[in-house]
Design a protein that fits this description.
The complex is a heteropentamer, with one copy of chain A, two copies of chain B and two copies of chain C. Chain A is an alpha/beta fold. Chain A has helices at residues 20-26, 44-53, 64-71, 117-129, 145-152, 165-172, 194-199, 201-220, 223-232, 238-251, 260-272, 284-287; strands at 8-13, 35-41, 58-61, 77-83, 89-93, 108-111, 137-140, 158-161, 175-179, 188-192. Chain A has a five-stranded mixed beta sheet with strand order 2-1-3-10-4, sandwiched between helices. A five-stranded mixed beta sheet of chain A has the order 7-6-8-5-9, sandwiched between helices. Chain B has twelve helices and no strands. Helices cover 38% and strands 24% of the residues of chain C. In chain C, α2 (94-105) runs parallel beside α4 (138-151), α3 (109-122) packs across α4 and α6 (196-202) crosses α8. The radius of gyration of chain C is 18 Å and the shape is globular. Chain C starts with a strand and ends with a helix. Classes of the chains: A alpha/beta, B mainly alpha, C alpha/beta. Chains in contact: A-B, A-D, B-C, B-D, B-E, C-D, C-E, D-E. The C-D interface holds C 9, 11-17, 19-22, 25-26, 57-63, 74-75, 212-213 and D 2-3, 11-21, 23, 26-32, 35-36, 39, 290, 296. β2 (35-41) of chain A pairs antiparallel with β1 of chain D. The structure holds adenosine-5'-triphosphate (2 copies) and magnesium ion (2 copies). Residues 47-48, 84, 160 of chain C line the site of one magnesium ion.
């Protein structure tokens, strides 16, 4: 790139909770003097618009954004996969009589926001259980306390919850697990515009390497990243934090790279729920480029 | 030059142009039909000019948007008027729009019905009592400046994800706007008029009805106008955070699907609702103002 | 018998930004039942202030003010005030402005309308019932205010330059009208005017105030029999003498100053 | 009874109590030191009562909250004043608060500096021209009622994630509140005063400065008061959507972490800012109003 | 020579909610350079309207109105209007209200202050410079308005009942003051009053208007030499005769109606 000085990168995140990208940035020691700036977004779609508009350089978000936008002809690509486990599980209030997805027919079910990943997961869950999705009353209930209130106070028979709230809620005994995703899905990928990456290879490379390094460090010595994790979730007690960080690290694929298996699973879900036309689905190599991650 | 500074609502004669005199009819309250006809003509001409200009503004803005879209700016960001219209037609045709629209309207309506009287009462009370306002005013300001968006999650926690939390949100938005205008309005009432009412020994309620409320009309009009917009915003914000229907829900859904056309279609409906409510308010205003001193259209 | 109004050693000090402004300083006045008292005095001497104290609209800083022997503490029943500035409700038509005191009293609207139409005729505003105050001339507005005060049917009239911006003719006509009304009703009247002729023509007694801060300088009983012929009166010699005496009293203090 | 209906700001004498007369000093503008001392005493007493009541309100509300928290309501949902204070102390102590606070203040300040003059100009222009307002008013209403939250992503695309998009957001919030109040204010100016200015052949600018702006003062005060709150809200909303610092960022972060204490700590700071700005405005208002007809404290 | 003001066949029809209200219907008037014309007529006959037309504040519906031979089209330079209601700026003190026309003219503030203090003395308001209009009595407000008009130093004065709410003494004092000012300056004056005495005392010519809708009925030259001694004048026989003639003219049309 033509730009002098240290490489910089503006990274969009949906903040709240522990993530590998945030751990990498917060634990410091980014390679090559990389300056990384975290920008917190309210939702993935806001961040994607900012990415396409050039307000941010990279975004760590769901793989569907790559698929969707490439299908729409927008030039975005995935450069690493940070999590291949769908994050949301369905939770019901204990004693509500809901034991499985089959019990939800015709009831209110809470997702974080309509059209979001949790909604996609719900559609997948209902399809698996043979419950008509259109028969549900889907409620957007946000994340965190609002979601917990929606489920706990009977606003919804079940709701989509992710960690760390998931762990907390289940530990409290007031809630039971109704459904847990058992498929692979590109839940978090590092997304950027190839045009920007071309002009800023060193920055992107350094950032991706930092992610890899953090992953390795965590795998080798989990406590070494707990300090950075504490920054992101200062209110979690140490044991829960440890559990959550361990889960986060476990969800990341080896070397942050996937083959086309999980990609196919992902696109299959998206076509199944009608979010992408089957004939518009981009090929794996078109959607992802792991070359900048360094030696495999 | 300074002439144009006089209010557009200047007293009649400011606008009266010379007309041929017809001196023979000396009726005190009639100035000849030529003059009246001319007034009529002028009024009609004015109404036409307004309408034409108004349409021109819309045409220019929408036209520029349509032309820019896909050329100057990516359609991904700004959609285009034709697409939005297409979507609206589809939403109306399939009947998808109504549940969202009625949901939002119910929230707005209920919020206004509660928030407006509450705000007026609060404004009157604090406007009239130096002690009450000394005690409460700073806190009112504090509450007003709380970002309701940030409180929305708490509202949902406290009032559930149903209608109640949305109406509460609308009320908290509307309340303050009404309050501040009424409060200032009360403090600006002509003391002489209160003296008149007192000297005739009007009781409290009569004074409120005959002196205070009519004096507040211009302030209330502004407050209501501001309320309509802010009530809609409140309802949508609440629906963005947590909802299963409503225009805010539809916008959020579209936004998450990166469907900018859907977002704009939702916004267009909100805008239309606002304009309709505003025009209705304008109609009421003209009826009330007919007897009000300062302004007549 | 206690007088209708008794004011003794009245002091009024208005609050201003910088302290207090003494508007009345030891004013004394008494009005008998059914008496018509005219109040004259230099501009700014506190005539309006005195009226407002009696109307219960301005608090005393010192001294006593009583109506029917009871200390004044807020507006009393049966007291009708006509303000120096007309103080009409700008959003009400002439007709509706006059309705105000009738509305306070309550009662049948149709009857009110009849009464209002009568009053509009009395003050010579036929045809202007539906005009708003800002569409009227200064004199017409004053007449509306007069009609409004008449509508209240008070037994004590407090009138602050009621005929100020009226031409001589209208003034005399409405003055005569008011006089004959007063003569039949037997109410008490305190009447501020600048027109010494008018004061003599109408009143039983003319009270002269000193320049600010006001106190009552002197007073003149008017020894003219009633009913009076307003038009002829001013050419009688006793009228001339009284006029000169009052004018002199008005001039005196400022000649000294 | 009706007496108390007269404005608390009633003319001086309404409040003047009887004092022993000291008839010997006949100075026109001095009513004796006893009276003045009494005024002073009353003013002091009033100020004390206001202060005590104000503190009492805070104590009662915060006390009830503290007591209810963990007893009537789960602390998870409402935190507690003591926890919030603890958090604030910590935020200040560690210096974490300042970057957030200054960021938000800069956005609010810049937004007000741009939005207020713009709103005044628009209000004056549309208030004075029947044609302009006929053309534009419905669209202003439409724009006003657009939920800015829904537009925030577009702002980010157009104006970036930096200061500019946040300031724009604040401006779009402030603009309309100022506009509507000024617009209504302009339409309520006493036509006679314009006539006076015209008859002295004051030019346009002089008329604006000497007649229009002073007449607008009460309206502007309300508008500014409403603006402070709404500017803060605008800044926070923008920061909620996308930010890397600012009070809104802090609140959002806390909210996502289910850290209700953090949310309330952020809200408390906003509230404090609002109160400080409001008091500053009140001070300016009193200085300006000293020469204004209707109200004096 | 063209007259200072020429009004011919003037019609003014105010817009009202229901149509038009004819306030002036064929009024004719002319004022010579340096002439002092008094305008009298029944309340509501259109006197204020006529003044406002000459001031360029109200548009004509028909007829001509010229100043120095040029049709009036908005306020002209050198025309000073004193409004019937005082129309003071309520947020300005007495001193600052009087400053208004000086501010328009521009120039040195200190010089303005000197001028303003002079004017305050002229209208007898020493000590009230820092009062707000609402802290003044009706007569005092009028005097502020007068001072403000004087400050503009016009060569055509349009005065709508300038001395209305003043007591006889103040009225005569300020009237005399104004008269001597006029005599030195040689400006033209159109002066509305209800007080026929005042009209005769001050004016070169008294114009009488008909009841509404107004037109000029008749006019009377005042054959009194100048400078006039305001206090003595009213006891001369020619004064008495003129007074009676004007009063009769005022009465005449309404006697018929
Ligand atoms: N609200 C007020 N605040 C302060 N001073 C006031 C107030 N009202 C009146 N004054 C002062 O009190 C004095 C008496 O005023 P008042 O209106 O009673 O006079 P007045 O005799 O009615 O005069 P006029 O004949 O001109 O109407 C004046 O000097 C005036 O400046
Ligand atoms: N803005 C207005 N709209 C409608 N009618 C008006 C308006 N202003 C004045 N008029 C009418 O015009 C007529 C003349 O009014 P004007 O004020 O000129 O009378 P005037 O001779 O000055 O009376 P006065 O001696 O009582 O002041 C009145 O009948 C009045 O009702
Ligand atoms: Mg007075
Ligand atoms: Mg007049």
């Amino acid at each position: 790139s033509a730009e002098p000085g240290p490489p910089t990168i503006r990274v969009g995140l949906v903040c709240g909770g522990v993530g590998l990208a945030a751990l990498a940035i917060d634990s410091g020691g980014l390679p090559d003097g990389l300056q990384a700036q975290k920008i917190c977004f309210d939702s993935g779609s806001d961040a994607v618009q900012a990415l396409v508009g050039g307000s941010i350089d990279a975004f760590v978000g769901a793989g569907e954004h790559v698929v969707d936008n490439r299908a729409k002809g927008l030039d975005v690509k995935g450069y690493a996969v940070v999590s291949e486990a769908p994050p949301y599980s369905l939770v019901s209030a204990a004693g509500s009589g809901v034991h499985g997805v089959g019990d939800l027919a015709g009831k209110s079910v809470a997702v974080t926001a309509p059209g979001s990943l949790s909604d996609t997961e719900l559609q997948k869950a209902t399809a698996e259980a043979g419950v008509p999705y259109s028969g549900l009353r889907v409620v957007g209930a946000g994340t965190g306390a609002t979601m917990q209130a929606a489920i706990g106070k009977g606003g919804a028979a079940a709701g989509m919850v992710s960690d760390p709230l998931l762990t907390t809620m289940l530990q409290s005994g007031a809630f039971t697990l109704t459904w847990k995703p058992d498929f692979r899905y590109i839940a978090l990928a590092v997304i950027a515009k190839p045009s920007w990456v071309n002009d800023n290879k060193p920055a992107m490379q350094a950032f991706l390497q930092a992610l890899r390094a953090t992953q390795d460090k965590a795998n080798a010595d989990l406590p070494s990243v707990l300090g950075a994790a504490k920054q992101q979730a200062p209110t979690l007690d140490p044991t829960t934090l440890r559990t959550v960080v361990a889960a986060t690290i476990a969800q990341a694929p080896p070397k942050l790279t996937i083959d086309d298996g999980p990609y196919r699973d992902t696109t299959q879900v998206l076509t199944q729920v009608g979010q992408v036309q089957p004939d518009k689905v981009p090929s794996f190599t078109d959607a992802f480029d792991f070359s900048l991650l360094g030696p495999q | 030059m300074t002439e144009s500074l006089s209010l557009r609502t200047a007293r009649g004669a400011h606008r009266a142009g010379p007309v041929p005199g017809d001196d023979d009819t000396r009726q005190p309250s009639d100035a000849g039909s030529a003059l009246l006809e001319q007034d009529q003509r002028e009024a009609n001409r004015f109404r036409r000019t307004v309408l034409v200009g108004r349409i021109a503004v819309a045409v220019v803005v929408l036209g520029a948007w349509q032309l820019a879209s896909g050329r100057l700016v990516s359609e991904f960001f700004v959609s285009s008027p034709s697409e939005i219209v297409g979507r609206l037609v589809q939403l109306v045709g399939t009947g998808q729009l109504w549940p969202h629209l009625t949901q939002t309207l119910i929230e707005v309506g209920a919020g206004l019905l509660i928030g407006v009287p509450l705000g007026v009462a609060l404004g009157v009370a604090l406007g009239m009592s130096a002690l009450l306002s000394g005690w409460l005013l700073p806190y009112v300001m504090a509450l007003y400046s709380l970002p309701r968006v940030a409180l929305a999650p708490l509202f949902i926690v406290w009032f559930g994800i149903g209608l109640l939390s949305k109406i509460t949100m609308v009320v908290t938005m509307v309340l303050f706007v009404i309050f501040y205008n009424v409060y200032q309005g009360v403090r600006n009432i002509d003391q002489d008029l209160f003296d008149v009412a007192r000297s005739f020994r009007a009781n409290r309620w009569q004074t409120v009805r005959w002196i205070m409320l009519p004096s507040l009309v211009p302030w209330l009009v502004t407050a209501l106008r501001l309320s309509i917009g802010i009530a809609l915003i409140g309802a949508v914000i609440a629906e963005l955070i947590a909802a299963s229907s409503g225009l805010g829900y539809y916008i959020k859904l579209s936004s998450n699907l990166l469907d900018v056309t859907g977002v704009f279609a939702g916004l267009a409906v909100i805008t239309a609702v606002a304009i309709v409510l505003d025009q209705a308010l304008g109609y009421v205003e003209r009826r009330v103002m007919r007897h009000h001193p300062e302004k007549q259209h | 018998m206690t007088p209708k109004v008794a004011v003794r050693d009245l002091r009024v000090a208005y609050r201003t930004r910088t302290g207090r402004h003494l508007a009345l300083d030891g004013a004394d006045l008494s009005i008998g039942h059914g008496e018509f008292v005219a109040l004259v005095g230099p501009s700014g001497c506190g005539k309006s202030t005195l009226l407002k104290v009696v109307a219960g609209l301005v608090e005393r800083s010192g001294g006593d003010a009583l109506i029917d022997g009871k200390p004044i503490d807020g507006p009393s029943a049966g007291v009708g005030m006509l303000f120096q500035n007309d103080a009409l409700l700008p959003w009400r038509t002439v007709h509706e402005n006059i309705r105000l005191p009738l509305q306070v009293a309550g009662g049948n609207r149709a009857e009110q309308d009849v009464r209002i139409r009568d009053l509009i005729t009395t003050v010579g505003l036929d045809g202007f019932a539906d005009y708003l105050p800002r569409q009227l001339s200064g004199g017409m507005r004053k007449r509306v205010a007069l009609a409004r005060t008449l509508a209240a049917d008070p037994d004590l009239f407090l009138m602050d330059e009621p005929f100020g911006p009226l031409d001589a003719l209208t003034r005399r006509r409405i003055g005569a009208e008011f006089l004959s009304l007063w003569e039949t009703l037997g109410t008490s009247v305190l009447f501020v005017t600048h027109d010494v002729d008018e004061a003599i023509t109408l009143a039983d007694r003319v009270v002269v105030m000193s320049p600010a801060p006001g106190r009552v300088l002197t007073e003149f009983p008017v020894p003219l029999h009633r009913p009076r012929d307003v038009r002829e009166l001013r050419f009688t010699p006793s009228f001339r003498d009284l006029h000169d005496a009052i004018s002199d009293a008005l001039v005196a203090p400022s000649e000294i100053a």
